[in-house]
Amino acid sequence: MRLSDRARDLPESGIRKFFELAEARDDVISLGVGEPDFSAPWAARTAAIDSLERGKTSYTSNRGMAALRERISAHHERYDQSYDPAEEVLVTTGASEAVDLAFRALVDPGDTVAVHEPTYISYGPGIELAGGEQLTVPTRAEDDFALTRESLEAAGAAEADLLVLCYPNNPTGATMTEEEYAEVAAFCRDEDLRVIADEIYSALTYGADHASIATQPGMRERTVVVNGFSKAYAMTGLRLGYALGPTDVIDAMNRIHQYTMLSAPTTPQYAAIEALDRCDDEVAEMVEEYNRRRRLVVSRFNEMGLDTFEPGGAFYAFPDCGGDDEAFAEELLEAQGVAVVPGSVFGEGGEGHLRVSYATSMRELKEATDRIATFVENR
Ligand code: PMP
């Protein structure tokens, strides 16, 4: 069948290609996946089951259940973010849908969207599908992959219409402080840039609390915040996320959403209400466990001589492998049966690095890092 140019031109995901290689063997320890190894908290799962037993299988309101939007709004006060549940919150099918809707609502054909790299792989294709063009802003290992005003200026981002931010970052684990955001916010105000801030890893920070560009002066009215339940609540398969933003943008996103999705799935909305009401302790336990693993992984890589900066969030370490990352990852898989993702998959600045997910049991992480150490010694 003849395909649209847009569909034909979309590239294959570099991550998937790698998984296919890993799946061909059965002795592989995968540090490649970008999702929690935990299950959703039991209370959240029970609420989902209970809603099904009560026959709650209809659509919800387009914007999501009012009770859920109220909880989301209240939950975000912990980040000093304040959004009206009736008009400024939209519940979506994963953060993925929220990102897609934001592009569709904010990008006109020919618009330029600045994206810092290395970063999550979905933004480029999302921009392309919305008819926009990506302008890449490389971030640097020397800055621990934080975005700076200097790098925005050097990349010519002053000419862009929109900026996509992803902190805590996938794949680097980098976070941004209030002070670093102040610089970027000043640039956005000076150059009249709107922002999509993907903050899906906001709950997974180690040490410093999550900061958001949306709380910088003058930024709330030019920012759409994306978040969701996949990471913090280990609910990836339940497909629930949301967007927070000014009424006019959320209205526009909801108009697209009501034709393309109608409403986010109902069962997970019941799970999400329970997650927000009663699962803070479980989230804290998961964060504590990720933090233990993070310390192990970072110190083991540094001991091996693969320089690894201390990631402040998410569940990824981003060691410098000192050369061709694709060759390193392929040879490591071949020789030791450990799957990691080459950093270059995540764009400019990712080359020479590996994305190592520590959303894997401590036992497997110890075994995997032993194998990597053997590989590095023999290489
Ligand atoms: N943003 C980032 C930065 C992610 O890492 C992911 C998941 N890998 C998503 C968005 C998509 O999340 P969801 O499951 O909520 O669609």
Automatic annotation (TrEMBL):
Transmembrane segments: none annotated. Its cofactor is pyridoxal 5'-phosphate. GO terms for biological process: amino acid metabolic process. Gene3D superfamilies: Aspartate Aminotransferase, domain 1, Type I PLP-dependent aspartate aminotransferase-like (Major domain). The keyword Transferase applies. InterPro entries: Aminotransferase_I/II_large, AspAT/PAT-like, NHTrfase_class1_PyrdxlP-BS, PyrdxlP-dep_Trfase, PyrdxlP-dep_Trfase_major, PyrdxlP-dep_Trfase_small. Residues 27-372 form the Aminotransferase class I/classII large domain. Keywords: Aminotransferase, Pyridoxal phosphate, Transferase. Its EC number is 2.6.1.-. GO terms for molecular function: pyridoxal phosphate binding; transaminase activity. Homodimer. Belongs to the class-I pyridoxal-phosphate-dependent aminotransferase family. This is Aminotransferase. The lineage of its organism: Archaea, Methanobacteriati, Methanobacteriota, Stenosarchaea group, Halobacteria.
